[in-house]
Each structure stands twice: as structure tokens, then as C-alpha cells.
């Protein structure tokens, strides 16, 4: 069984310096790839984030300086392109430090996160016919228009998070051999086309 919600490891709170470092799309993609795939070298990351191995190595060192990634335990010595890196935590809190700079950085990161998820879904759809049928049949995308108060929305997001997080790849230690890494995106926001009756 996956880890129970009350025993989940905490998310690493990300400060403004780390938020600024993540403002580079390649770095955001690198961190997400390490969270999904586990320890990887700069060369292994290069094709996924569409950067050269040298650029990936430079971005990984920049992420390490702000505490978001670290050298993996296995083979941490040697050439920077062959050294495996890993995420420094199993999850991150990108709300930032108090103040207007953090709000701007967090908003920019939210937009980047949305673009990253959209691009990932696009790559999935482009390769869908090449994937095992059991996985394409199991996948899904749903959209809902919910009638909620802000307090109810926060509670719902917390409940969904508690349901999903035990299955997060770096957290789950009992994954069956038939399992694979699945991307799940959840977005919850006030509908700007309905709020305040724009008509």
C-alpha cells in the first residue's frame, strides 16, 4: 500500500531566490523531469528538455545552488555531464516568501507550470498511438465547473492532494512492477468568464 496521507514527507518550501532560478523554462523542465524520472545525468536530461548536455549541466548547477537539486548518491564524482542529479525533495511548495516580489514570481511560475503541463500532454497525444493500449484506455481528462466557497475550494484541493500524494513517484516505495510514471495535473481557479457576470 502507498504511504498513508498522515505519514507523507513535507514539501520543501521554496524561497524567492529559488523561485527566481526556476523562472528559466529549461530549469523548471529539469526539476520536473528529475521528480518524474528519478536520478538522471545532464546527458540523459538533454533530449527531454531540448537542451545540450552542457546547458543542462549548467542549469543543474544553478538549481543546486538554490537547494532544488543535488548530486545523487551513486557516482557523484566525475564529469558533470555523467554525474547523476536528483531533486532535493519529493515535493515543493512554491508559494514563496511574503511580499509582492514573491507573488509576482509565484504567478509567473504558475503560468510556466501550466505551459509545461500543456506541452507534456501534447507530446503524449502525439505519441499516443505508439503507447500500450492498456495505458491509453486507462488515461483520461476531465473538466468540472464547481460551485464552491473559497474555504470549500481549499478543503477540496487539500483532500485531492491527500488522495494523490501517496502515489507520487519519489514517495511510493511499494510500486508494483507493472506500474509506470503517470502525470496528473490539477488546476482550480475562479472562472474569469463567469465571475462578476462579465456579460
Mean pLDDT: 88
Q: Main β-sheet: number of strands, strand sense, barrel status?
A: 2 strands, parallel
In CATH, what is the homologous superfamily? Winged helix-like DNA-binding domain superfamily/Winged helix DNA-binding domain
Number of helices: 7
CATH class: Mainly Alpha
CATH-defined architecture: Orthogonal Bundle
Q: Flag low-confidence runs.
A: none
- Head-to-tail CA distance between termini: 50 Å
What value does the Rg take, in angstroms? 18 Å
Structural class determined from secondary elements: mainly alpha
What level of helicity do the residues show?
Answer: 40-55%
Find the CATH topology.
Arc Repressor Mutant, subunit A
Order of helices and strands: EHHHHEEEHHH
- What is the number of strand segments? 4
Account of the protein in words:
By secondary structure, the protein is mainly α. It has a single domain, classed as Winged helix-like DNA-binding domain superfamily/Winged helix DNA-binding domain (Arc Repressor Mutant, subunit A). Helices cover 45% and strands 5% of the residues. The chain has 7 helices and 4 strands. A two-stranded parallel sheet has the order 1-4. Strands 2-3 form a two-stranded antiparallel ribbon. Helix 3 packs across helix 4 (53-65). The radius of gyration is 18 Å and the shape is globular. The mean pLDDT is 88.
Short description:
The protein is mainly α and 199 residues long.
Amino acid at each position: 500500500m502507498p504511504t498513508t496521507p498522515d505519514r507523507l514527507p513535507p514539501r520543501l518550501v521554496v524561497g524567492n531566490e529559488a523561485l527566481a532560478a526556476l523562472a528559466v523554462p529549461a530549469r523548471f523542465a529539469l526539476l520536473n523531469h528529475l521528480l518524474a524520472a528519478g536520478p538522471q545525468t545532464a546527458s540523459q536530461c538533454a533530449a527531454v528538455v531540448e537542451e545540450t548536455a552542457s546547458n543542462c549541466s549548467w542549469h543543474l548547477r544553478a538549481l543546486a545552488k538554490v537547494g532544488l537539486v543535488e548530486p545523487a548518491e551513486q557516482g557523484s564524482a566525475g564529469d558533470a555531464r555523467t554525474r547523476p542529479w536528483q531533486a532535493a525533495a519529493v515535493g515543493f511548495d512554491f508559494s514563496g516568501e511574503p511580499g509582492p516580489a514573491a507573488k509576482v514570481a509565484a504567478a509567473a511560475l504558475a503560468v510556466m507550470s501550466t505551459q509545461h503541463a500543456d506541452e507534456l500532454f501534447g507530446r503524449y497525444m502525439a505519441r499516443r498511438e505508439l503507447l500500450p493500449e492498456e495505458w491509453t484506455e486507462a488515461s483520461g481528462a476531465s473538466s468540472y465547473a464547481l460551485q464552491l466557497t473559497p474555504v470549500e475550494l481549499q478543503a477540496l484541493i487539500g483532500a485531492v492532494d491527500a488522495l494523490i500524494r501517496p502515489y507520487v513517484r519519489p514517495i511510493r516505495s511499494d510500486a508494483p512492477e507493472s506500474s509506470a510514471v503517470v502525470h496528473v495535473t490539477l488546476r482550480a481557479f475562479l472562472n474569469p468568464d463567469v465571475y462578476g457576470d462579465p456579460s
